[in-house]
Write a structure and sequence with these properties.
about 170 residues, alpha+beta, 4-stranded antiparallel beta sheet, about 15% helix
């Protein structure tokens, strides 16, 4: 079962918490940290982490994402939001989508809750940017090498260090 997760920061844009400001899409969002993990806690932190291999058990790709209010506004105006995790199982002959006929299952974050929007607004006021913990999860993962690509809503890749953001792990 594929469960790519959606970064629903578009709700923050619609809420009026962001201001104007153009920038190139390649440098608007920073993935400050990522972890392969067995769980995500109630306070949105990662659990036990894996680096190169993980057991055949539910697996999450957890990320700490940073952006400015201007970045979110620019991304929303360009049709780049939401952001998706696309899970692939790497095959001998290449990379193939796993599971159902549609590649993406979208699950919205709870970013639209009024209490979280207030917190986001306070964080933006105080720091000039916000960070958001987000993740996607595969419950019924099979053994093999897995790849998660990070894509904008228009299917263009989010860039990390000048390259498309992709994260791999082997499940044994």
């Amino acid at each position: 079962m594929r469960l790519p997760f959606v970064l629903a920061v578009g709700l923050a844009v619609a809420s009026g918490l962001v201001g104007p400001g153009p920038a190139a899409a390649d440098d608007l969002i920073e993935i400050a940290s990522h972890k392969w993990t067995d769980q995500v806690t109630e306070d949105r932190q990662h659990g036990r982490t894996f680096t190169e291999t993980a057991p055949v058990a539910p697996l999450n790709l957890w990320m700490l994402v940073k952006a400015s209010p201007q970045a979110l506004k620019a991304l929303a105006e360009r049709g780049k939001l939401p952001i998706f995790h696309q899970w692939f199982r790497v095959a001998i002959a290449g990379t193939s989508a796993e599971g159902a006929t549609e590649m993406i299952d979208s699950i919205a974050l709870d970013a639209g809750r009024p209490d979280l929007l207030r917190q986001l607004g306070l964080e933006i006021e105080r720091r000039g940017f916000f960070d958001w913990r987000t993740w996607s999860r595969k419950d019924n993962i099979r053994a093999g090498t897995w790849l998660v690509r990070i894509k904008y809503a228009d299917n263009t890749p989010l860039r990390c260090g000048g390259q498309a953001c992709e994260f791999r792990i082997t499940v044994k």
